[in-house]
Please model this.
Amino acid sequence: MEDESKYYESPTESIPGLNFTDHVADLIEMRDFFNDRGIPTKNTRIDRYSQYLTEFISGKPFNEKLVFKSSIDERFKSGTDWLLYVLREVHELAWILKGIKTQTPAGLESKLGMLVSGSDFAALDSNTLSRNVQFELRIASYFCRSGCEVDLTHLTDLIGLNKEYAFFAECKRVGSIAQLKKLLKEAKRQLNRSMPSRYKERIAFGCIAADVTKAVYNHYGITWAITYEHSKDILQNKLKSIANNLPSAELFLGGGNIIKYWLPIHKRCLIRHPPTPTT
Model:
């Protein structure tokens, strides 16, 4: 990092960001959104994130292990560890909520029930169903925010409809780089089986989203960076390295109207200038 620092000038001022009370407000809104649809959140991870942040904001000493009793792990060694892992989860859930409340996808309720059932932290989730659904909803939320009508009831993970096109999307969470090519090919086969050339009088296109966070950072920990721009470059370089080693011709050819492979990383980062956590 010392060698790179000369390329990233420290900012003289910073843009105000969300504070912890904003995150609690997001969680309360999420609780109400779930409860209004018959999905209870009491004694779920949504409830525990809110309890933790409320305790944190109070400034009084408290024991994180009493909040997250089933999440004791060697990765949680300090108060900062707990905070960063919680923020990682809360930020993703807030992004999802902002999307799905703009235009509620068909079949959302059953997905919400599975989402709240998962472990408190992705790093500890041995049953991947909840986090798989969370990733599908994250991708769905982006389609919702772009103005698409989203359907979660199809054989494909989700379908996004705008006035002209139907986007069929398969979503995969990848555990290792070695697994990536296999899962991308599997998603391609699934789309080729389920995606027609036209759907509801729209031209159909295929999209494949593969979350490679665990493949790159198997501990789900944090990255350090000098500035916000530096943090983005760190992750972009990781993604470029992965993408450059994929057989692009093989993935795009051979049937189907697949137009996009999307490889997101969802990562916590501590920024040196200004000192702040970001996702």
